[in-house]
Amino acid sequence: MTQGAHGVFTAFLRDVLTEIRLYVFEALMLLVEFHGKVAPTAKEFLPTYGGVARPEPTPRSRHGHSECFQFRLAAFDRIMSKVLDSIARTLLDLVVQIGSFSVAGMQQALLEIEFIQRTLAAYETVHSKDTFQRIYSTLRASTEVDAPPGRGGGVDSDLQELDQLLTENRRATALQFRCFT
Question: What's the whole-number average pLDDT of the chain?
């Protein structure tokens, strides 16, 4: 996602907002691959006794997982939270670097950034949540309000359309990105 600000976001997009662009799905699929490689190795973070992995304790958590399993999940979640923090900071840097957006460009960026945030919401931290809020504030402040809205239906109509596209894409990719839930 660091191909240069204008290579990722098109600040003055003139077309009608119709989809999340391919680079977003490709980036998230790389994270699915990362997840597949890192999650199984998270067990290495388990404390050991004399070189043998700690035996699984008998008490179960309220979700039915053992404490040992919960420890592995917590270690992996910390890794993914750091990844999400880094993604959020990079996206903020890109939005700041662009400086100004047309309404359609802002809507496209908003759709794609919010898709990423919602897809990776399980790993959200206070810090990443704050960074995403700063992204949204920066987008609003950098948008040329004189530019015509996406389909001419006004800001409320455009936001409803954006939310509908977001919901449809989340539903369509639910299985693909299931590892993040």
Answer: 77
Beta carbons of 28 and 177 less than 8 angstroms apart: yes
Tokens representing residue 112 in the block? 């794609």
**The two structure tokens encoding residue 10:** 């098109």
Dmax over CA atoms of the chain, in Å, equals: 69
Q: Tell me which of 27 and 160 has the higher pLDDT.
A: 27
pTM for the whole structure: 0.74
Give the whole-angstrom CA distance, residue 150 versus residue 77: 38
**Residue in 70, 75, 31 with CA at minimum distance from that of residue 178:** 31
Quickly tell me which residue has 């700041």 as its tokens.
96
The CA distances from residue 16 to 58, 95, 100, in Å, are 57, 20, 18
CA distances, 21 to each of 113, 152, 169 (Å): 11, 22, 11
CA dihedral sign of residues 43, 44, 46, 48: positive
Q: Give pLDDT tens digits for 85-97.
A: 999 999 999 999 9
Domain ranges of the chain: 20-53+64-180
Tens-digit pLDDT profile for residues 43-79: 565 454 444 444 444 444 444 444 554 555 677 788 8
Choose among 127, 107, 128: nearest CA to 119.
128
